[in-house]
Amino acid sequence: MASSDTVVSTRPTLESMEGMGGKSVLYDDGKCPSGEIAQFTKRGGRTQINRVCVARPT
Fold first, then answer.
1. Phi, psi angles (nearest 5°) of residue 26
2. Which is one Pfam family of this protein (predicted)?
3. Residue 55: enclosing H or E segment and its boundaries?
4. What is the pLDDT of residue 23?
5. pLDDT, tens digit, for every residue of 5-57?
6. Within the chain, where are the H helices?
7. Looking at residue 33, what DSSP letter applies?
8. d(CA 16, CA 33)
9. Under DSSP, is residue 24 helix (H, G, I), strand (E, B) or coil?
10. Beta-bridge partner residues of 50
11. Do residues 37 and 54 make contact, with C-beta atoms less than 8 angstroms apart?
12. Which of 18, 24, 27, 52 is the right S-S partner for 41, CB 3.0 to 4.6 Å?
C-alpha cells in the first residue's frame, strides 16, 4: 500500500474522485477476503474506477 492511500467511509464514485489524478483511496466494501480492503483508483482522463483488493493497513 502506498503511503498516500486514504481510508474513506463512503464508497468512491467518479464524481468524488474527480481531480485526484491517479491517487488511490481505500474503502471496506465487504467484498474482499479477510485481512484485505478494496483499493479504488481513477486514472486521469478516464471515465472508470479500478478496484483491487490489497492488504489492510495496520
1. -110, 140
2. DUF6719
3. strand 50-55
4. 87
5. 899 999 999 999 988 777 899 999 999 999 999 999 998 888 899 999 999 98
6. none
7. P
8. 25
9. strand
10. 41
11. yes
12. 24
List the one residue out of 25, 34, 40, 30 whose CA is nearest residue 56. 34
CA dihedral 37, 24, 2, 9 (to 10 degrees): -50
Task: Specify the amino acid at residue 21.
Answer: G
Q: Which amino acid is at 55?
A: A
Q: How far apart are CA 7 and CA 17, in angstroms?
A: 13
Taking the alpha carbons of 46, 49, 54, 58 in that order, is the dihedral positive or negative?
positive
Rg of the chain over all Cα atoms, to the nearest angstrom: 11
Q: What are phi and psi of 25, to 5 degrees?
A: -130, 155
* Cα–Cα nearest to 52, from 34, 44, 41: 41
